[in-house]
Amino acid sequence: MTVTEEREVGSPRRRKEDARLITGRTMWTENVVLPGMLHLAILRSPVAHARITHVDTSAARELSGVVDAFSGRDVADIQGGLPCAWPVTEDMVHPDHPPLAVDEVRHVGEPVAVVVARSRAAALDALAAVEVDYEALPVVLDLEAALADGADLVHADKGTNRSYTWVFDSGEAGTGEAVDAALDGAEVVIKRRYRQQRLIPAFMEPRSVVVDPTGDQYTIWSATQIPHILRFLVSAITGTPEHKVRVVAPDVGGGFGGKLQVTPEELIAFVAAKRLGKPVKYTESRSDSLVSAHHGRDMIQDIELAARRDGTITGLRVKLLANMGAYLGLVTPGVPILGAFMYNAIYKIPAYRFECTGVFTNTTFTDAYRGAGRPEATYAIERIMDELAVEVGLDPVEVRRRNWINADEFPYTTVAGLTYDSGDYEAATTRALELLGYDELRREQAQRRDSGDTVQLGIGVSTYTEMCGLAPSRVLGSLRYGAGGWETASIRMLPTGKVEVVTGTSPHGQGHETAWSQIVADQLGVAFDDVEVLHGDTRTSYKGLDTYGSRSLAVGGIALYNACQKVVDKAKPIAAHMLECDPADLEFTGGQFRVRGNPDNGKSLADCALAVFAAHDLPDGVEPTLDADAVYDPVNFSFPHGTHLCAAEVDTQTGRVAIRKYVAVDDIGRVINPLIVEGQVHGGVAQGVAQALFEDAVYDADGNLLSGTFVDYTLPSPADLVDIVTDRTESPAPDHPLGTKGVGEAGTIASTPAVVNAIVDALRPYGVNDIQMPCTPERVWRAAQGGGA
Amino acid sequence: MTGLYEEIREEPAADVPVRRVSITVNGAKRTADVEPRLLLAHLLRQGFTLTGTHVGCDTTNCGACTVLLDGQPVKSCTMLAVQADGHEVTTVEGLAGPSELHPIQEGFSDEHGLQCGFCTPGMMLAAKALLETNPDPTEDEVRWALSGNLCRCTGYQNIVKSILWAARKLQSQAGT
C-alpha cells in the first residue's frame, strides 16, 4: 500500500470539462461533418399495430437531392436484429427486433423506411413520398388484459404476451422463511397496488449517429453511454470484424440510462452507410426521440406487507407486472429484476417473495432509466412503510427505526441474499430530521389540521438504500446477464512526468475527467492539471464496460487506483537505482520516492518517467516503461443509503402542491469531489420529484403517444422546482480502497416516495391513502374532495 | 444551404426560392442565401458553423437554442433565418473575449451550473438578457426568467447560483 498525501480527493475542484462546454466548443455527434456525408431520415409507423401490406420508395428516390431510399423488406436479410443481453429466464420469450420493420409494426414510432439525401431537409422532405399501406391489427395496451386467455397478441407467432416470469423466494433460496406462512399468521397485513407510470429519460441532447465506412473500417460516432458495448454488439450483429469497428462517443449530452442501448437508428445508419459506401448521419428530432428512444418504469406493483402490531415487519410479498413494450431492448427484462433485491430495502425482513412477469404491449419498448428497478422498488416499500405506520399508530420514522438494520449489524446479509457492506441509517436519519426541523413541522401540521386550514402540510419520509457499482461479474452471470461488470483503467506516463489516463467508463455529464484527475493526482503525487483523462473512443480506450448503474467511480475508480499503484511499483526499482539504495528502503509520498529517514534525498515520479524514456541506465531486466493497466472486478455491489425528507404544502382547494422544504442526507461513502456529488444529488432529486409531480408518458386507446413532445411530456422548468438542502453522512465502503460508493442514481431513487408520502400525509385527514403519480393538481384536488385519485 | 466546408453550392432546384439575409452575428456581418423556410438555429449551426447553439426540441420548449436577437432572448429553432435579416444575433461564441470568459461563464463553472452542458449556452444567454435588465435579481426572479429553458442534469439549483454569482461579479465590476 502506497502512502500519499491526500490533497485533491475531497476538494471541490472546478470541472475540467467546463472549458469547452461553456464556450460552445463542445463536440457533439451532431457536430461531426465529414466530406461527402449524407443525411438519413426515418419514416416511422403512425399506427401501433399493423401488417405492412405495401411499401414503395421509388417516388422518394426520384426527388431532388435524394441518393437512396429503402424499407425493411429491402434490407431484411442484411440488417440483423437488435440485441437483448439479459435473457432473465431460460424460457424467456424474445421476439425478433428488426431495426426496420419488415412485415409488421408493433408500436407507433417504429422505423419503417429510410431516405438518404445530400441534405437533412431533402431527406425529410422525401419521407412524404414514401408510400406505405397498413392493415390494422388489434392493439394491446393493458398489462392485465394482455395476459388474459384469448388476448390479442403483440407477437402472434409467440402465442403469448408473457415474456417471462421471474421469481425469488426467500424460503426456496434459503435466505429467509416462506412468505405465505408469514402473511397468513400476521397480526397486520397491508396490501396495496402502486402504479409506476411510464417515464421518458428525455436527455437534453437528442440522439445522433454518424457512420463512416472507409475501406473495410467502420467508424461510428454516437451519442451513447456505451461505446464499448456498442462496438462489440455492432460487430456481432453485422458480422463486421471487431477490429474493423471503431466507436466514438464524443461529448454526450446526458443519458440517464436512455443512451444505454444499441438502437435501431444506429444499425439503420450502419446499413445505409454500408449500402452506399459513404458517411451517413442521423440526428433525431425531439418528437422522434420521445416516441422511439426507450422509455422507463411502467409497472403495476402489488405489494403485501405482514407485520406485528408493534410495527415489526414479518413478511413481504411483491408481484409485479412490468411493461416491456413491443420488444426487448438491451437490458429491458432485467430492469425490474434489479428491483427484486431492493424491495426489502434497509429493513430486516424474515420472509420475502418477489415475482415479476414481463408483458409485451404495442408501445415503445422500455429499458433502463435512472435507477432502473431500484426507484420502483424503493417507491413501493417506502410508500407502504407509511401505510404501516398509520395502521399501527407509529410515527413513520419510528416504524422504520424499528425495522432497519442497525449500524453495528454490518455487514448484513438481507433476505434477498445481498450482503450490505456498511451504513448508518440512524445517523443519516437523525441529521435529516434536524435539518428539516421535523418536530416543529409536525406541530405546524397538527395546527393546520385542527384549524381546518385549506392548505395542509405533509411530511414525507424516504429512507432508501440502493445497490450500485454494477457489478460483480459472477453475480451478473448468475442472473443470466450477457456481460461482466469489471472496469478498466490505464496510466500512460509521459517522459515529462505528465499523465494520460485511459478509462473504460464513458461519461456524459458526470465529470469523470475532473474526478479521475483528482484520484490520480493524489495517488501519483502529480498536479491535477498534469493529468489528462481520455475516454469514449475505442481506438484509445479499447476496453471497458461504460457508464451506467452508478458504476464508474465505484468500479472504474478502483481500476484507476490499482493502475496507479502499479505505476508506483514499476517506478520504485528505478528510483532506487538512481538513489543507489534498496527499493525496500524507499517510501513514496507526494510524488517523491525518498529513503526512509532521509527526507532530503529523493526522486520524483517525473524523474523516473524521464529515466525510462532515456533508458540509458536502468536496473538490469527492468522494462523501460512505467505504464500500467488494471482491470477490476468488484467483489460486491456498493450500498449507498440516505434519508430524504420532504415537507409539502397541499392546497386542498386547487390541488396545488408546493414543496416547502426538501432535505437530502446521503451516505455515499467517501467523496472525491463534493461539488460534483452535490450536482448529482440535485439532478437526481429533480428527476424523482418530476416522477412524483409532473411527468407521464401517456398512450391513447389506439396506442398513440399523447405526450410526444415537450409540450405534453412536461419536464420541470426552473420555476417548477425549489432549492433543496443537502448534507452527507459517511460510512466508507470497506471493499473500496477509496471508500467510495456511487451517487448517480441515489437522488432519483430516494425522492419520489418522499414527495408522494408528503402529499398523502397532508391529505390523510381527508381519508386519502394513495394518489396516483404524477400527483397533478387535478388528482390531488380530487383526492382532497374524497373522490379518489 | 452551405455546409460546414467552404464549398461550391449545388444549383438549388428550380422551384426552391432563395432569399439573401444579412445578419450581424457576434459583431460580424454575415451574409447567406437561404431557403425562406430555413430556421435561424440551422443557419447558425450549419451555415455559420456556430455549433454552440444547440437544438434540443422542436416545439420551443427546451431553450437549448436560445440566442439573443438585438439583446432579447429568442429561441432560434422557432425563428426563420429570414426573420433575423438586418438584426444582431449573439450566440454563446460571442460571450467570451479571446482570453477572458464572460462573468456568466465563470459563474457556471464556479458554481457547477452544468453537467452535460447541452442546455448551458441557452441558459447563459437567457441569463445575460436577464442581468442586463435586472442586474440584482432574486432567486425567484432568476427561476422565472429561465423558465423557458430546460435542464435535465442539474435540478437548476446550481444554475440559479451561477447566475447570482455572475450578477454579483458584474455589479462589482460596474462599481469599480
From TrEMBL, chain A:
<dbReference type="Pfam" id="PF20256">
    <property type="entry name" value="MoCoBD_2"/>
</dbReference>
<protein>
    <submittedName>
        <fullName>Carbon-monoxide dehydrogenase large subunit</fullName>
    </submittedName>
</protein>
<dbReference type="GO" id="GO:0016491">
    <property type="term" value="F:oxidoreductase activity"/>
</dbReference>
<dbReference type="Pfam" id="PF01315">
    <property type="entry name" value="Ald_Xan_dh_C"/>
</dbReference>
<keyword id="KW-0500">Molybdenum</keyword>
<feature type="domain" description="Aldehyde oxidase/xanthine dehydrogenase a/b hammerhead">
    <location>
        <begin position="23"/>
        <end position="138"/>
    </location>
</feature>
<dbReference type="InterPro" id="IPR046867">
    <property type="entry name" value="AldOxase/xan_DH_MoCoBD2"/>
</dbReference>
<dbReference type="InterPro" id="IPR008274">
    <property type="entry name" value="AldOxase/xan_DH_MoCoBD1"/>
</dbReference>
<dbReference type="InterPro" id="IPR036856">
    <property type="entry name" value="Ald_Oxase/Xan_DH_a/b_sf"/>
</dbReference>
<keyword id="KW-0560">Oxidoreductase</keyword>
<dbReference type="InterPro" id="IPR037165">
    <property type="entry name" value="AldOxase/xan_DH_Mopterin-bd_sf"/>
</dbReference>
<dbReference type="InterPro" id="IPR000674">
    <property type="entry name" value="Ald_Oxase/Xan_DH_a/b"/>
</dbReference>
<dbReference type="InterPro" id="IPR016208">
    <property type="entry name" value="Ald_Oxase/xanthine_DH-like"/>
</dbReference>
<dbReference type="GO" id="GO:0005506">
    <property type="term" value="F:iron ion binding"/>
</dbReference>
<dbReference type="Pfam" id="PF02738">
    <property type="entry name" value="MoCoBD_1"/>
</dbReference>
UniProtKB/TrEMBL annotation, chain B:
<dbReference type="Pfam" id="PF00111">
    <property type="entry name" value="Fer2"/>
</dbReference>
<dbReference type="InterPro" id="IPR002888">
    <property type="entry name" value="2Fe-2S-bd"/>
</dbReference>
<keyword id="KW-0479">Metal-binding</keyword>
<keyword id="KW-0408">Iron</keyword>
<feature type="domain" description="2Fe-2S ferredoxin-type">
    <location>
        <begin position="19"/>
        <end position="95"/>
    </location>
</feature>
<dbReference type="GO" id="GO:0016491">
    <property type="term" value="F:oxidoreductase activity"/>
</dbReference>
<dbReference type="InterPro" id="IPR001041">
    <property type="entry name" value="2Fe-2S_ferredoxin-type"/>
</dbReference>
<dbReference type="GO" id="GO:0051537">
    <property type="term" value="F:2 iron, 2 sulfur cluster binding"/>
</dbReference>
<dbReference type="InterPro" id="IPR012675">
    <property type="entry name" value="Beta-grasp_dom_sf"/>
</dbReference>
<keyword id="KW-0411">Iron-sulfur</keyword>
<dbReference type="InterPro" id="IPR036884">
    <property type="entry name" value="2Fe-2S-bd_dom_sf"/>
</dbReference>
<protein>
    <submittedName>
        <fullName>(2Fe-2S)-binding protein</fullName>
    </submittedName>
</protein>
<dbReference type="Pfam" id="PF01799">
    <property type="entry name" value="Fer2_2"/>
</dbReference>
<dbReference type="InterPro" id="IPR051452">
    <property type="entry name" value="Diverse_Oxidoreductases"/>
</dbReference>
<keyword id="KW-0001">2Fe-2S</keyword>
<dbReference type="GO" id="GO:0046872">
    <property type="term" value="F:metal ion binding"/>
</dbReference>
<dbReference type="InterPro" id="IPR036010">
    <property type="entry name" value="2Fe-2S_ferredoxin-like_sf"/>
</dbReference>
<keyword id="KW-0560">Oxidoreductase</keyword>
<comment type="pathway">
    <text>Alkaloid degradation; nicotine degradation.</text>
</comment>
